[in-house]
Amino acid sequence: MDAKTATQFIESNFDSCFLNPLKDFVEIPNLTPAFDENFLTNGLIMDACRYITDFADAQNIPGLTHRLHSEEGKSPMLCIVIEGTGKRNVMFYGHVDKQPHMEDGWDEGLGATKAVVRGDKLYGRGSSDDGYAPFSALLAIKTVLAQGVPLPRIVICLECEEESGSTDLIYLLDKMKSEIQVPDICICLDAGTADYDNLWLTSSLRGVVACNVRAEVVPSGQHSGILGGIIPESLSILRAILDRIDESSTGKVVSTFQTPVPSWKAKEAKELAALKGKGLYEFCNFLDGAKPMFHDDLSEMYLGNTWYAMLSVTGANGLPPTADAGNVLRAFTEFRISLRLPPNKDSAVAARELQEIIEKDPPYGAKITVSGLNHGDGYCKAEYEPWMYDSLSKAAQSNFGSKTFGTFATGGSIPFLTELSKVYPTTMIVGLGAAGADCNCHNPNENLDLPFSKKFIGALASVLADCGTV
């Protein structure tokens, strides 16, 4: 496939085949089931899926069909199939569900369901996580077809509960097995990029365990002056429990949830630290005087972000706004916690260990309740066939002007990848993505870099052409 012709085709079709439909997708207010109690009944996820299928139909791609599997009590799954004429069966993976909108915190003029192009960025929920996936895959397919290059058989598999832990994933993959068949290659389009100057391959992803933890000692709030010193503070109880998981003075998680760093990951950490330097953290916009963790050792900072277990408190109940905070010992404190795990730590084992640690010997005999527990495994890249490395290098050279592609890890989680490797052990899994470190996915001001997206689609087209012909 001629790279210059492909670049011109993408440039001329970018708005109509990628940017405009992605903007429409952003403005559909669908969420993920964990954050939408009416997910299965309000029709929003079906609206999002139907928008994608309607757009796919309008592309006039020969041999394109699709099926949306939906049944009571389960998240849907969408598969778009193109019966190609070339070698191999290639699966693209993405997801349709979105994180909560978080309307407070978006910059003026921006919003979760308000697609806005500002400078080189498209802003809105789902722009970088993971709405670009189907549209980038479809434009890459059209780019290959425009030059008459044989396509492999392609299935674009779109999950609808990735942000909720992919609970029904294995069940749904089985339901869609006639469409998916056995992929030779899976290109995951939910990964990230280390920068916007090269094509980056994901080497590993962390696993995750998340749950709600509630501490209570009395049935209702009491006057803090009258009963303070008799009734224990529920937040202090919860903090004592969390101290069993990580050291509050350092943020380091206990050894129960850690695994040894393999030599290849230690080498990668040194290389990325040398390449990026302070670029590993400067984009975070720290306040004056604030410092990152591991600020005196960039290799350790990289491992802290991509390999070590780390605990976050992502939400709270039982704490009134300060404007409404009287002198009251509150009845309870509840946190939502997220524990990121090393890529090779068994998340099911970690979930059991976490619950045991939380519930054992509660301070003051307090009532401790664990709810909403879910988990997902991490991922480490396996070796590829030589032609795939050659193809990725060629895609990086022709679209980014790089000598070869880069490899890096991200600290996020995509449970799908490990689950797929269990179901299809012979499949080459290639993690590629357009979410940069500044994309703010899951947060206000989520955005997608548009110049990078054009190059990224060109790289996808290059690899896809090789999949069908090499």
TrEMBL record:
Keyword Metal-binding: yes
One GO BP: proteolysis
Highest taxon of source: Eukaryota
Record keywords: Hydrolase, Metal-binding, Protease
Molecular function (Gene Ontology), one example: metal ion binding
InterPro entries attached to this UniProt entry: Cyt/Met_Dipeptidase, Peptidase_M20
Keyword Lipoprotein: no
Protein name as catalogued: Uncharacterized protein
